[in-house]
Design goal:
The radius of gyration is 19 Å and the shape is globular. The chain is built from eight helices and 15 strands. The chain is 38% helix and 21% strand. A seven-stranded parallel β-sheet has the order 3-2-1-4-5-7-12, with helices on both faces. Strands 6-15 form a two-stranded parallel sheet. A two-stranded parallel sheet has the order 8-11. It is of the alpha/beta class. β1, α1 and β2 form a beta-alpha-beta unit.
């Protein structure tokens, strides 16, 4: 039986990854912040829950060796990184360093899996994206993710730690209470006139949470050395098409408008098509 540690296991990706590993026979330990209702975490496949900030000292207190550590904890918001760049750095970079150092000193055979973001590559325009393309972030979020990836590479090169990085595109699914799809569903149900950022021509690559979790688990089984992959469907869809489909689903006449504006720091998610080569 594999012993797996999942940071940020209370979050949307973390709890689904925990469920996926548990369903495939792993013993799952969760760490991070989140107020579960009694033992609700066991329903998501988490055998142990440690309520704590992710630090080197906290990891020592867990006092276990792991076959795989999945770092789902950390910042997940471009907007938050603009408003709180210092805290975003702590969540994304310092936590990653703590985990890598824990592996180096106490658990050198453990694999480290890091869910990252295409934000590390910045605004490449409406072109197929390769993992090897130039990395020029445009937001604090993207810069911090890039630094975390560079730490992963450094620990692999210098200390032979096995690292796998998945740059997830737009993950969606039941239980997600933020981002475009959730926001659109809420607006469509509450109003007859809804307004969204951008022009509607921007594209997203969508990946269901169950596929994202399964991809991570399968990827962890095959990582040897250092590897970076994109995580998406490989297909793009315009935002206006997504909104139109949602309106049809709710069977409600709605006036949909786009304001032509772009939120600060998130230009990189617009006009992007994922294609693995």
């Amino acid at each position: 039986m594999k012993n797996v540690l999942i940071t940020g296991a209370y979050g949307f990706l973390g709890r689904n990854v925990a469920k996926e590993f548990k369903a495939n026979g792993a013993y799952v330990v969760g760490i991070g912040h989140g107020k579960w209702y009694q033992d609700e975490y066991t329903k998501w496949g988490i055998d142990e829950w440690h309520e704590t900030t992710i630090t080197f000292e906290a990891l020592l207190n867990v006092n276990q060796e792991f076959d795989v550590i999945v770092h789902c904890g950390g910042s997940g918001s471009v907007g938050f990184s603009h408003e709180n760049p210092y805290e975003d750095f702590q969540k994304s970079v310092q936590s990653t360093l703590s985990l890598l150092e824990f592996i180096r000193l106490r658990n050198p055979q453990c694999k480290f899996i890091y869910p990252s973001s295409p934000a590390v590559q910045g605004n490449l325009g409406n072109i197929p994206i390769k993992e090897s393309m130039e990395s020029v972030p445009v937001s604090p979020y993207g810069f911090h993710k890039k630094i975390a990836e560079q730490l992963c590479l450094s620990y692999h090169n210098n200390f032979n730690i096995q690292v796998g990085i998945i740059r997830y595109f737009s993950i969606y699914g039941a239980g997600l209470k933020k981002q475009l799809l959730w926001d659109a569903c809420r607006k469509i149900q509450e109003s007859d006139v809804v307004v969204f950022f951008g022009t509607g021509k921007e594209t997203r690559d969508w990946l269901n949470i169950s596929d994202a979790a399964r991809l991570l688990r399968m990827f962890s089984e095959h990582v040897k050395g250092y590897d970076v992959i994109n995580g998406g469907s490989g297909r793009s869809i315009e935002i206006q098409k997504v909104i139109s489909d949602l309106c049809s689903h709710f069977n409600k006449p709605v006036s949909v408008k786009f304001n032509g504006a772009t939120k600060e720091g998130i230009q990189f998610i617009f006009g992007r098509i994922l294609q693995r080569h």
